[in-house]
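Record format v2
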Amino acid sequence: MSNTKPDSQMFLEVINHFVPEVLQTMAGLTAVVGKGNPSAPQPSVLKGISGSIGLSGRMTGVVYTAFSPELGQTVAEKIFGGSAGEQDVNDVVAELTNMFTGNLKSMLCDRGYNCTLTIPSVVRGDKISISAKSATISVSNTFTVGDCPDPLVVHVFAVLEN
Amino acid sequence: MSTPKILSVDDSRMIHTLINKAFAAHDVQMVFASDGAQGLEAAEREKPDVILLDVTMPVMDGIECLTKLKATPSLKDIPVIMLTAEAGKENVLKIAKMGVRDYIVKPFVEGAVIDRVSRIVTLKPKSGAAPAAAAPAAPVANKKPRVITDAIKILVIDEHPAIIESIQKAVAKRGWKVVGAASPEAAQGHVAANIPAEETPDIVLISLAFPNKAGLKFFPTARAHPALKNIPFLGLCLKTATFEQNDAKDTGFAGCITKPLDAAEIPDRIARAMELDVTPVFYSAEGDIQVVTIPPDLSEVGSIDLSRHSRAKIADFVNAGYGKLLLDLTGVTKVEVPIIRAVASIVHECEKIGIDWRMVGSDVENLPNFPTIVETNLKVPALKDLPNPFKGKNNLDIHPTRAAAIASF
């Protein structure tokens, strides 16, 4: 087990690694990683279909994802191999958020920051304001998925126990 | 043989859809449940052969569901494969201690689910179904069928000399040659375009632990050489390195050999990846009698491949005029799943085709009890579809030598 305390950069590296891997494996879609922001502002605003999963334990935090309706539809149709309704898209957003977060959790657990995950939630909106005032880590990045013009946004808030 | 029943317990319709797609070409019966509580009910009602169980679910999560399954006498023996996005060492150890048969890390490819389930139940193609999409396994380079007794050159690329040495020792019994390299860079010379075809390797075994996925990146490099464009690759990695294994399959590897290495299994894994005909190792002839020699260290992979080929091989011998079969288990002292499968399959073929058979063995205490051993072990999931050719038989006559067995025909 590595004793390195995860920092913002490490969080970014993990999402930069796993988000494209999950999309490639599950949907066969290539995701191009954006520049990334290791100090993402609070509050931040998401729009579209947003998945969120909480983490609690030696690390507490929340992982948010935001897909535009078009992107959500594209990914869901690729996964289902045909048309996908609104519930299907929500389900895909929830499950993909779960996969991103599960892999982040694995990295944290391997570094001694054990935590448990909540069930994913999905909300839809044009202006979803997200913040976590106590978070010492607030990172975000965008991923251009396939030919879709709207990027996938992934935002992580975290507080690590000393 | 009954159709295997698979219960998938997951709160995601997406996962159910993917699992359903994965098994679409196979003759299986799928049952779905969307949380742990429904999963328990479905398990009780359906008595599935395998349960695929998610971890994070509402109402009752996978861990609680697994605990309850294991505490229920009628359900505790159903093999459970966990599907989890949480591949941390602690999580993996926790679920391993709870008695799961295997686990699949999300994201996963369909092939990974089929692979894990097929280790527990026999999957047969659905009748009338289109053949399943080709697995990423590489076909054999040469068109001419190759056999296990051919001279095989293996390129092993691993940073640990001990691994190369272990593989060398494991394949020595087959007379195969191993060329070692400590890194993909050091192996470049063995796959360069200018080396003669007779010096190129027949298969590559490469560590997946090299930094920056160098092991995976070596794959297209090697295959760029026209003589190597179909060469099979096997990854070398830890059993828990599921991501690496999935990456390797996605890249086009024929499979992975996990560490710690099982010496008995290595030649069989290589033979399977190269689609070598393994039967010459086991089948021979003495006079007008066909002889099947079962080695004491028969691996699981070797047993499955031997059993799979036994029908055709025995039929070939019978067509060629060999009407008797001698099953030689000399040296076998532990009758475990691979031996049981091989012996029962071969005897079943003999009984079906109507040829006389005898068994030779040095373990005169245990081998006569083979009918009881088979009967008892048919409950083991890996053997549940095995035909029992010994039904109604009590003790077997075990001959101490081949000569004695031949004389008894």
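The helical segments of chain A are 8-27, 69-80, 86-110.
The first strand of chain A starts at residue 31 and ends at 33.
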